[in-house]
Amino acid sequence: MKPLVWTALCFALVHTSVLAGPVNHTPPEEPEQTGKADDKYLKQKPTQSQSISDATPKAESDLVDGLILNRAMTRFGHRFYREFVSAYRDINGTSQHSGLTIKEFATARSGSKLSVMHNRKPIFVTFVSPASRNIDRQAAGAAKHVDALLKKHQQQSKWSAFTDPDLAPDEI
């Protein structure tokens, strides 16, 4: 009997509050001025059309610099990749390279062979065992070593332009 009484009492209270009328609320006299901006700020700059073709780039400047590709297969390889990229960014590694690839060759017996490749040539190779706990240190060391090699390679390529007296290709 008690639940029925409480239900009836709640029902009566709801009806009396609804029938009492709306709360006296007057809207503001003028609507708020929100979101108005001058037309000079809304003008868009003309955008240049970008080619999204899969064709080979015509100029070397069309290539994307600074990419580090992940070709790892195991979770240890992916962890090495994440730590390598993080360490490479932390030391402000050079981004003026034509791309690095971290490639993993997994073996069931001895772990994984991880190679950091530049222009399809290995520039750093390390082995990671599943029982190894120093993947983070290996990745940080690899990042420092790879950055030093890339900077040395860039410096050598700049100096090689001065050592070659022939500035133009052969015309034959």
UniProtKB/TrEMBL annotation:
It comes from the Bacteria. Residues 45-54 have a biased composition (Polar residues). Keywords: Signal. Residues 21-58 are annotated as: Disordered. Residues 1-20 form the signal peptide. Residues 33-42 have a biased composition (Basic and acidic residues). May be involved in the biogenesis of curli organelles. This is Curli production assembly/transport component CsgE. It comes from Shewanella maritima.
